């Protein structure tokens, strides 16, 4: 199994301005070289409920076209979320785009009632696990982090853990950032997996402040970064042998 190189893009998102966000990401990505790139939740709009103006059709999305272009240019997979319409419903949809342009999706299961997200977006009903470069990856979005039951790891029919990594992309405000830090750590420990958490920075139109703290957590819950709080890209490299080591020494998953 090859090492996996990941870049978390901790952006100051421009409120409801897709063009400005594309341009900003292109600058932030200019010198990035990685196997996998994460962008924050609702990467092109910020965490907006303005679905009438901002939603894009699943089968004809200019934003997904842009993600596919970047994935091809960077020869990297990309994971993020955006506002998508399909079959008369609107979703906060996570999109995993391979370098080839192939895509898989995950619809956020836990919509954030405090911000009335549940009034505008339909909740997803199932998990999505993708395979990439030999790694099995569980897709999640922001508020999902508070609900461990929807991402519980387990031993599958092959006798192996269902996944090796969970991806969280988020717009998680500073006033609850201690929860973000603690819950990322908890998900890593209880699921014996790597956690990648990509959050935004800056201030949105609702005057919410975001302090980032994007990070990668090891399967033992150790933070590999330093709670970075400004706009920029963060680079990490993980290896499978360290994951195998902790699962061998502490075989907790078999007891679920």
CATH class category: Alpha Beta
The overall number of domains is 1
Shape: globular
Sheet with most strands: 7 strands, mixed
| Integer average pLDDT | 97
How many beta-strand segments?
A: 14
Helical proportion, percent range = 10-25%
Compact summary:
This protein has 256 residues and is an alpha/beta fold.
Structure characterization notes:
By secondary structure, the chain is an alpha/beta fold. It has a single domain, classed as 4-Layer Sandwich (Nitrilase/N-carbamoyl-D-aminoacid amidohydrolase). It is 22% helix and 29% strand. The chain is built from six helices and 14 strands. The chain has helices at 18-28, 51-54, 62-74, 117-120, 177-191, 240-249; strands at 4-10, 36-38, 56-57, 77-86, 89-97, 103-107, 129-132, 135-141, 165-169, 194-198, 201-203, 209-211, 215-217, 232-238. Strands 1, 2, 3, 4, 5, 6 and 14 form a seven-stranded mixed beta sheet that branches. Strand 5 and strand 6 (103-107) form a beta hairpin. It starts with a strand and ends in a 7-residue tail after the last helix. The model has no long low-confidence stretch (mean pLDDT 97).
What is the strand and helix layout of this fold?
Elements: E1 4-10, H1 18-28, E2 36-38, H2 51-54, E3 56-57, H3 62-74, E4 77-86, E5 89-97, E6 103-107, H4 117-120, E7 129-132, E8 135-141, E9 165-169, H5 177-191, E10 194-198, E11 201-203, E12 209-211, E13 215-217, E14 232-238, H6 240-249
Parallel strand pairs: 1-2, 2-4, 3-4, 8-9, 9-10
Antiparallel strand pairs: 1-14, 4-5, 5-6, 7-8, 10-13, 11-12
């Amino acid at each position: 199994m090859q090492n996996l190189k990941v870049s978390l893009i901790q952006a100051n998102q421009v409120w409801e301005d897709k063009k400005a966000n594309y341009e900003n990401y292109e600058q932030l990505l200019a010198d990035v070289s990685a196997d996998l790139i994460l962008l924050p939740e609702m990467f092109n709009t910020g965490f907006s409920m303005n679905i009438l103006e901002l939603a894009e059709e699943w089968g004809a999305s200019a934003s997904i076209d842009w993600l596919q272009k970047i994935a091809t240019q960077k020869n990297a997979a990309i994971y993020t979320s955006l506002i998508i319409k399909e079959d008369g419903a609107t979703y906060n949809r996570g999109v995993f785009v391979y370098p080839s342009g192939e895509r898989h999706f995950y619809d956020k299961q836990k919509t954030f009632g405090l911000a009335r997200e549940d009034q505008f977006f339909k909740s997803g009903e199932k998990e999505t696990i993708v395979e990439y470069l030999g790694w099995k990856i569980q897709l999640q979005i922001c508020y999902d982090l508070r609900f461990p039951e929807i991402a519980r790891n387990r031993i599958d029919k092959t006798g192996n853990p269902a996944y090796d990594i969970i991806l969280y992309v988020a717009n998680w405000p500073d006033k609850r950032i201690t929860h973000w830090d603690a819950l990322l750590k908890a998900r890593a420990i209880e699921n014996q997996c790597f956690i990648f958490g990509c959050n935004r920075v800056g201030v949105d139109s609702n005057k919410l402040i975001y302090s980032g703290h994007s990070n990668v957590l090891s399967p033992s819950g150790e933070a590999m970064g330093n709670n970075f709080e400004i706009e920029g890209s963060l680079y990490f490299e993980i290896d499978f042998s360290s994951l195998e080591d902790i699962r061998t020494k502490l075989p907790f998953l078999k007891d679920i």
